[in-house]
């Protein structure tokens, strides 16, 4: 049986795969089974922060694997404590809970919010408000949080206690009149929702409003985090300070790791036994994350912003590209031709891109060389210009 048949026969059919198999890579270049090379502008949906088979990352992972690959959370392990300390040092947050994915990082954030609200405002304060168009994960609770009805339809009933509002102050104020809101969850730039930047004014005013009413502000930085937007976390572009930050994807550069960062206000909301995860804080994943986070410094972030500008300039007035949304190296192209058609045509031309709703989405590695990026941009422009 060839690989495609084997996969189609035995892997649950939840993913519509593109017709290529990736067998190896180096940085932002990956190769298929026939040896054809592709410029990778997907980085595993924002995961391989420093590219494929990055040497620093490999060294950190193999070193830790040769020491101890896993111990339960019943024991101390060095990478977990050091990573938590570094995350707190870089963000001003006070404590970190580690899990394995973005959905789990959000689950933890929601549990913290529910318990904080119960402890401080009573048992009828439990509503979690999220934004229309948002995406927060695929577990039943994070699906309930996700503000896109089509994800909900087949899986009723979802976890109760969620409402979805437009990103306007009128909508938030109105919701707060009819519900006792425990938390508001936002993605500063909605990723799966179509690379949509939230208005800066809304984020600022929503932060002031939530502070005033002791509603927790949770920033879902699963996709936007870890340098992706040209700041360590996207909220840092907006001059706001959330109470909780959830992140995953690029944090460990290609190994599963979720993190929920807790500010002073909620640092002790969960106590012994209130939450847990067998793999959360796994030493190999944490060692991998340390090798990533230690390199996301001011210089690297400036380079991300510079690469973003290069792309924006390349796409300016390009035929077939109507507009560019997003920030840093998380960009969405609104195109004349359907995004799916463009992404398929780009595979033929040796460039891997993503879609997000009706846009072509680019999430390249943070260290993609400028010439590689510009070569890819030229090919994208050519494909977008075709009828
Ligand atoms: C903003 C956001 N939150 C949560 C998730 C869920 O993350 P995971 O697939 O790691 O559970 C995603 C995944 O795309 C995401 O983009």
List the helices and strands and how they pair.
Blueprint: H1 3-10, E1 22-26, E2 29-32, E3 37-40, H2 43-46, H3 55-67, H4 78-91, E4 95-99, H5 102-121, E5 127-131, H6 140-145, E6 162-165, H7 169-178, E7 181-186, E8 189-190, E9 196-197, H8 200-212, E10 216-220, E11 244-247, E12 258-262, H9 283-293, H10 298-315, E13 321-327, E14 330-335, H11 339-348, E15 351-352, E16 354-356, E17 359-362, H12 370-385
Parallel strand pairs: 3-15, 5-6, 5-7, 7-10, 10-11
Antiparallel strand pairs: 1-2, 2-3, 4-12, 8-9, 11-12, 13-14, 14-17, 16-17
Helix pairs in contact: 3-9, 4-9, 10-12
Pyridoxal-5'-phosphate binds next to α5.
Describe this structure in words.
It is globular, with a radius of gyration of 21 Å. The protein has helices spanning 3-10, 43-46, 55-67, 78-91, 102-121, 140-145, 169-178, 200-212, 283-293, 298-315, 339-348, 370-385, and strands at 22-26, 29-32, 37-40, 95-99, 127-131, 162-165, 181-186, 189-190, 196-197, 216-220, 244-247, 258-262, 321-327, 330-335, 351-352, 354-356, 359-362. The protein has a seven-stranded mixed sheet with strand order 4-12-11-10-7-5-6, with helices on both faces. A four-stranded mixed sheet has the order 1-2-3-15. The two termini are 38 Å apart. Helix content is 37%, strand content 19%. It is an alpha/beta fold and 387 residues long. The mean pLDDT is 98. The protein folds into two domains: 3-53 and 298-385, Aspartate Aminotransferase, domain 1; 68-293, 3-Layer(aba) Sandwich (Aspartate Aminotransferase, domain 2), CATH 3.40.640.10. α3 packs antiparallel against α9 and α4 runs parallel beside α9. It contains twelve helices and 17 strands. β16 (354-356) and β17 (359-362) form a beta hairpin. The structure holds pyridoxal-5'-phosphate. Residues 101-103, 106, 135-137, 187, 191-192, 220, 222-223, 248 line the site of pyridoxal-5'-phosphate.
């Amino acid at each position: 049986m060839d690989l495609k048949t084997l996969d189609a026969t035995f892997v649950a059919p939840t993913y519509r795969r593109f017709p290529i198999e990736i067998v190896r890579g180096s940085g932002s270049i990956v190769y298929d089974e026939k040896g054809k090379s592709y410029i990778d502008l997907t980085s595993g949906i924002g995961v391989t922060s420093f590219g494929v088979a990055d040497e620093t990352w490999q060294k950190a992972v193999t070193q830790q694997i040769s020491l101890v690959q896993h111990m339960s959370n019943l024991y101390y392990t060095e990478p977990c404590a050091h990573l938590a300390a570094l995350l707190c040092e870089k963000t001003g947050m006070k404590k970190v809970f580690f899990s394995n994915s973005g959905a789990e990082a959000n689950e933890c954030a929601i549990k913290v919010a529910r318990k904080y609200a119960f402890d401080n405002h009573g048992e009828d304060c439990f509503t979690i408000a999220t934004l229309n168009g948002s995406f927060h994960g695929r577990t039943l609770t994070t699906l309930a949080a996700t503000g896109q009805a089509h994800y909900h339809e087949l899986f009723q009933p979802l976890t109760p206690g969620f409402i979805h509002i437009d990103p306007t102050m009128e909508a938030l104020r109105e919701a707060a009149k009819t519900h006792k809101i425990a938390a508001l969850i936002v993605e500063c730039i909605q990723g799966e929702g179509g690379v949509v930047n939230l208005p800066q004014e809304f984020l600022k005013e929503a932060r002031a409003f939530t502070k005033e009413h002791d509603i927790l502000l949770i920033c879902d930085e699963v996709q936007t985090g870890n340098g992706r937007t040209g700041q360590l976390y996207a909220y840092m572009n907006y001059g706001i300070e959330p109470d909780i930050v959830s992140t995953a994807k690029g944090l460990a550069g290609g190994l599963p790791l979720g993190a929920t960062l807790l500010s002073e206000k909620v640092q002790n909301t969960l106590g012994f036994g209130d939450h847990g995860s067998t793999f959360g804080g796994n030493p190999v994943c944490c060692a991998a994350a340390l090798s990533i986070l230690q390199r996301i410094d001011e210089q690297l972030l400036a380079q991300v912003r510079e690469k973003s500008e290069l792309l924006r300039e390349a796409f300016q007035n390009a035929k077939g590209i109507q507009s560019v949304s997003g920030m840093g190296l998380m960009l969405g192209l609104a195109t004349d031709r359907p995004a799916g058609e463009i992404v398929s045509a780009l595979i033929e031309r040796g460039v891997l891109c993503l879609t997000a709703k009706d846009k072509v989405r680019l999430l390249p590695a943070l260290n993609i060389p400028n010439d590689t990026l510009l070569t890819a941009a030229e090919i994208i422009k050519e494909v977008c210009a075709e009828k």
